[in-house]
Design goal:
The protein has 84 residues and is an all-alpha fold. The protein contains four helices and no strands.
């Protein structure tokens, strides 16, 4: 699946509910999921790591949708101007 397709899937599945929740709450959920990913990386199984990585990606896509940005555009910076 391409990143833009995933972002659209998150919009189709959760867009309305995400907008009702709002950006501040979405950022809070994203942070919580990052913590769960960190714990899974330290102590979890590969399946738990994969699950939490997917959750982080989903919340990141939700945030991008709510603020009107493309994850694909954000990622393309690494092609033309990667950080040192």
């Amino acid at each position: 699946m391409q990143i833009a397709e995933f972002q659209q899937l998150m919009e189709d599945l959760y867009g309305e509910a995400d907008r009702e929740r709002g950006v501040p709450a979405t950022v809070a959920w994203l942070c919580e999921e990052l913590g769960e990913l960190a714990q899974a990386v330290r102590k979890g199984t590969v399946e738990e790591q994969r699950h939490e990585l997917g959750d982080v990606l989903a919340w990141l896509a939700s945030l991008a949708n709510q603020i009107g940005l493309s994850l694909e555009d954000a990622a393309s910076r690494y092609v033309t101007d990667p950080p040192a």
